[in-house]
Amino acid sequence: MRKILLDAAEEGMVLAKPVTRDNGMVLVAAGTPITAALIGRLRSMGIDRLVVEGEDPSRPAVDVQARIQRVDHLFRRFADDPFMTKVKTMLQRRLLHKAQAAATQGEEDAGNGSAH
Amino acid sequence: MPETDLRTEYQGRLLAVKELPSLPAVLEEVNALVENPNSSTEQISKVIAKDQVLSAKVLKMVNSPIYGFPGRISSIQHALVLLGFNVIRGIIISTTVFDAMNTAMVGLWEHSQGCAIASSTVARVIGCKDPEEYAVAGLLHDIGKVVVAVQMPEAKQSIDELVRQEDLRYIQAEQRVLGFAHDRVNLWMCNHWNLPPNLKEALAYHHKPMSASLYPKMAQVVHLADFLTRLYEVGSGGDDQVSALDPQVLRALGITAGAWEELLRQVEEAFAEL
Description:
The complex is a heterodimer of chains A (116) and B (274). Chain A is α+β, with helices and mostly antiparallel strands. Chain A contains three helices and four strands; from the N terminus they run E-E-E-H-E-H-H. Chain A has helices spanning 36-44, 63-74, 82-112; strands at 2-5, 19-20, 26-28, 49-52. A two-stranded antiparallel ribbon of chain A has the order 1-4. In chain A, strands 2-3 form a two-stranded antiparallel sheet. In chain A, helix 2 (63-74) runs antiparallel to helix 3 (82-112). Chain B has helices at 3-14, 25-35, 41-50, 52-62, 76-83, 85-100, 108-125, 131-140, 143-151, 153-166, 170-178, 182-193, 197-204, 216-231, 247-252, 257-273. Chain A binds chain B through residues 1-3, 17-18, 20, 22-26, 51, 70-71, 73-78, 81, 83-84, 87, 91, 94, and chain B through 56, 59-60, 63, 70-74, 167-169, 230-231, 233, 240-242, 244-245, 247, 261, 264, 269, 272-274.
């Protein structure tokens, strides 16, 4: 699930969340496939963001090293704190595991020829 | 000048009523109604609905994913019944203060919304009742920073400089410049606005959650939520560091290794919805 700008919406994507007005009225239900006509209709109603199914394909595992470094940066003033260091190590290990799992999953999907 | 006098002087300036973000007049009327056991939610919602701009803002906020009923609340009365008066009051306060002071601290509104959704997510995962009350505590947890930024802009400037020059966390810089930090200001504001004790403890103790005596759980949840919001860098609390996580909080909240993984997964999902 990810939030995108209406301008980035493409046919074939599927709404993961309903599109609503500010007052909560549902305009389009979750699970609706996006079509060119729907994009036009949403634009005319002043909607500029959507939540669609699937992860952003342009953000694959490449980011992991950067994210791990970023966590180092966020914890930089806690180097002398054993507990915070433990928390940091645990978070970074989790990032690595997740990236590895996603990579294996990606290979399997490629083998099966499925989209995601 | 001795430190305590300085503090009293600062407190006086921060509470200088004429400049203080004044809460909408309807809120006073509503407070009076709530104290009367014979009032109905219909009466209360009518008073709020008189202020159309405020009602529109409240409805927009209660329909965000933060409060657990995204896109499903169609009237103020419905919101009052589902979320309770404390939550609606917290939302009215947050829109008033942040609206008037939107530009005072860049990124703080986003940080506050992030902390709100993280607080209700943590509360839900560990099985607290009324997670939306936790959301409001998260939403208001840094309100003291806004008040200082508006009432004492020169102090805010010195704090920002210290953060930049010495790579301090915002709270450390506040302590250096003012002798106290936003958690203290939160306490003053809670007293000033007569906020309920659970909210008051969460706001005043979110940096020392193990010292909260009446409602430790709420302070602990907001403490953890603040850390997570900084970890995922949702908005900005004034510096780009994580907050110091109290080693005792995870145990106090009963979060085991397995629950921690589930918590991170749900928090990531919640942040993606914002």
